[in-house]
Amino acid sequence: MDVSKDKSKELLSAITRINKLAHNGFRKKNMPNREFMFLKTIKYLKNGEGISEYSSKGVKASDLSKFLSITKPAISKLINTLEEKGFVERITDKSDRRVVYINITKNGEQILAEETKMFEEFTHRIVEKMGEEDTDEMIRLFKKMYDTIVEMECEYK
């Protein structure tokens, strides 16, 4: 096996380990990571950071499915779970009753704010422990990795 394949496996392993630790390390287990990320995505899209049409009405389940690359049945299940917990609500479009928008409730906003604060504090502690120089280097490398992935995506289209 060549060095490139060894490094690829090592990189994938490191990302996987970091991902597991990061998702478990900052939380008090108020909600599973997938629910946290789903609420963050709704907020992101609804605030117009992704697509401006969401800002007033909410976000359609089909758009969440596309944005997150998750099947529509999986999105539906997640919406049902969050709706049962009181974190999201479905709102039917008055002009077209087939269209249903998903919005975050006040309870959802509150838990999202709490979870986000914990995540930011966790990230801040990582930066403090790593130091400025290593953090800057990691940011540089993450940006380079992102640009490389975007470039590769363009090659596949």
From TrEMBL:
Residues 1-147 form the HTH marR-type domain. SUPFAM superfamilies: Winged helix' DNA-binding domain. The keyword Transcription regulation applies. It holds the Pfam family MarR. Keywords: DNA-binding, Transcription, Transcription regulation. It comes from the Bacteria. This is MarR family transcriptional regulator. It comes from Romboutsia faecis.
